[in-house]
Write a structure and sequence with these properties.
By secondary structure, the protein is an all-alpha fold. It has one domain: Farnesyl Diphosphate Synthase (Orthogonal Bundle), CATH 1.10.600. Helix content is 73%, strand content 0%. The protein is built from 13 helices and no strands. Helix 2 runs antiparallel to helix 3, helix 7 runs antiparallel to helix 11 and helix 10 runs antiparallel to helix 12. It is globular and about 55 Å long. The N and C termini lie far apart (53 Å).
Length: 308
């Protein structure tokens, strides 16, 4: 039991849950702006949605772990290239779990997530049903044959869609009980930034991914050109806030530009050290920091706008 519990925590990847919590919190703040207030009832639904997303995250990681291990991707990562940001969850390469146990955990977590989603759809609003279905489908198809999105240069797009529009709009719809263009526009910078987190995390796995035939964008472009993809996604993130500003009239959203110095440092370090794994991890940390801080600043802009 202790072994299974340890593996579930590893598959849950608690430090990386920020990828989900950021768009969920922004979506909740946007719903607060629409509703004009928040109730304890809203908080309970938000808590259930958080549990559902964590279950989906865990299920997605089990699918990734299983098929990345079969393809050889995780087995080809040596100690030199292993970082806290890459190399998978390591429950199969380390022998903590068997393949059957990983599949069982995936089935259970996805099953519980679907049950939570159905509760929200039938007792809160059915508007989130299709958002949840699309999110689960993309999560499963990310590494599942024959789709294998992340093996065909589509993983970055898939991650950007899920952790940008889908999660943010899903949370907003759950609380506000309506669709709206505003949360969709607010999700664009987060979508570009979380895709960029994936891109920078792919650098240490380059050799292993190449050997396993995992054709993500870093493998397809090569490290020297992928450096410019990393910088370009930062640029798109900052540029994409303009539609939200124009639509909402909330110029406080420009606060996200405050993260630009960190983004510049991340890009410069990536260009200098894309082959130096130890030094490159600074770019991983800074790219994640820009994503998280951007979410915080968007929330600050929304909440401040309520009073101004």
């Amino acid at each position: 039991m202790k072994r299974i519990s340890k593996a579930i925590v590893m598959l849950m990847a608690v430090p990386t849950l920020v990828a989900s919590i950021v768009p969920m919190t922004v979506g909740f703040a946007a719903a607060l702006q629409t509703n004009g207030s928040v109730t304890a009832y809203d908080l309970l639904w938000f808590l259930l949605a958080t549990v559902a997303v964590i279950l989906i995250e865990t299920g997605k990681n089990t699918v990734n772990e299983y098929f990345d291990y079969l393809s050889g991707t995780d087995r080809f990562v040596d100690e030199e290239h292993l970082t806290p940001f890459s190399g998978g969850r390591r429950v199969l390469p380390s022998g903590i779990l068997s393949g059957k146990e990983v599949i069982c955990i995936g089935v259970v977590t996805f099953g519980l997530a679907i049950a939570a989603g159905l509760v929200m759809a039938f007792f809160k609003t059915f508007l989130i049903f299709w958002i949840g279905i699309i999110g689960i489908a993309i999560s499963i198809c990310y590494t599942l044959p024959p789709f294998k999105l992340c093996y065909r240069g589509l993983g970055e797009l898939a991650v950007g869609i899920v952790y940008g529009p889908l999660i943010l709009l899903g949370t907003y719809t759950l609380i506000a009980e309506q669709y709206s263009l505003q949360p969709l526009l607010l999700s664009l910078p987060l979508g570009f930034l979380i895709s960029n987190v994936l891109v920078i995390n792919e650098f240490p796995d380059y050799e292993a991914d190449t050997k396993a035939g995992k054709k993500n964008l870093v493998v397809l472009l090569g490290k020297p050109k992928a450096v410019y993809l990393h910088g370009g996604l930062f640029f798109l993130a900052y540029a994409s806030i303009l539609p939200a500003i124009i639509y909402s009239g909330n110029f406080l959203l420009l606060l996200i530009i405050l993260t630009a110095p960190i983004a510049v440092k991340a890009c410069v370090n990536c260009k200098k050290n894309y082959d130096n794994i130890a030094m490159l991890t600074n770019s991983n940390k800074m790219t994640i920091a820009v994503y998280a801080l951007t979410g915080v600043l968007i929330i600050a802009a929304i909440v401040s706008g309520l009073f101004l």
